[in-house]
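Appendix B. Raw example, untouched.
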Amino acid sequence: MIRPLCLTSAVLALAACGAPDPEPKAPEPPAAAVAPAAVSDGLTAEGWGPLRIGMSRAEIETALGADANPEAVGGGDPESCDMFRPARAPAGLMVMVERGVLTSIWLDRGATLTTDRGFGVGDEAAAVKAAYGASAQVSPHKYSPAPAEYVTVWSEAGGPGYVQDATARGISYHVGTDGRIEHVAAGGPSIQYVEGCA
């Protein structure tokens, strides 16, 4: 009885040797190969994807590349304040850097990104105010008549009136005369600026 068992084992071993190798799996790309722009989380008061409020300009450039349009004027004094779109940033995303530090992230025309609450450029201000309720601070637009306005929600160290505390974090929805969001700004007190770096 031992003999046939050995013979069967030998036949199976030979058959296995003649079997074709399984198809090799394609190697998975390393995590670093995924473009930051593919990150799908929403814009928050603390940042978006690889961007975090408070990081240096060098860290921004490492994460998403240098200024996509270095000839454009981002501010009257770029050393003091500069606003630009990093080369690998999603369409419509701009960063504001003050004295070498990221202070806010802006969504402008063409942006498809939204906030962590799902609001973005083109959405109705009424929906934003309904979603945030009493925590939404509404103020008149500096240049345009109502229904243009600013709807701002502070998550940390914010309050009524103009906020100057550098540790404050919030999101501001800049609403146009059609009652829809024209810009979204997230980050520190610079979300209150209405003219780029001013």
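End of appendix B.
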